[in-house]
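Form P-L/3: holo structure prediction, ligand glycine.
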Amino acid sequence: MTDVLLAHGGVGSDQTLNSFLDDVVKSSLDRDPLKSVVNSVVRMEDDPRFNAGTGSYMRLDGSIQMDASVMIPGSFGAVIAIEKVRNPVLVAVDVMNRSPHVILSGDGATRFARTLGHAEYNPETEKARIALQQTMAKLKDSSNKEDRILNFRDRLTIESFLTVDTVGAVARISGKFAGAVSTGGANPMLRGRVGDVSIPGAGIYVGSEGAVVATGIGEDIIRNSLCFRTYKRISDSSLVDVLREEISHFNSPVGLIAVNGKESAWFANRQMSVGYYAGEHVN
Ligand code: GLY
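OUTPUT (holo model):
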């Protein structure tokens, strides 16, 4: 059976990143599908062009809170609103493999990361500072800061979201499946807001028949349980038609990548960068 590793740089991301992502997946391959997807996501978290890890967008209060998750059939690990770590996806792996829990959030997630040796790290970038300034400029007509934050939903249409460049990867290696996702969230967003990435069945789902991860506005993805709905149909032919049909229910930007026992596919209703490897057995 052909091995597959597929990664995306987020719906809305520039397709000129495709060749970089092809290199990312090639160099991330491992006999273990979980390591393959995690290696891919770490590479994107470390690259400030992506909204994950270094390069994550800021919340309206100027903080950076990141979400990440990993899944293999029967196991899941996630962090929500973790702060000051370099690779949230590696903490998600530790939640899955080294804690009795499946999800840790906020201060507890950050404290858990420190306990397991994830060093303090500032993921802030100039790109994130500029994006926050642009958001605040759009909201500036409000009389006070509290109104600005509480009413931003009314004044920004969904297309005003500056970016939702979640990164993710799915793999089928020796017939086994894994998925991983990481994000700095949507923009704009309140401190404490939770997106789809760390909600199993929303931004990620992996079972014995395949793996699916999503990118887009977390609120819409959660409302639609997008990855679980897609997974329920993962063995239908053709896979790309399933993704296209699931995405046709969305007006907001959304993308999916998926792999089943025979096929792999990606589809998005906006541009989306993708890296792809398919070959006969990883050594
Ligand atoms: N899909 C990323 C988020 O909405 O947080």
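COMMENT: The chain has one domain: 3-279.
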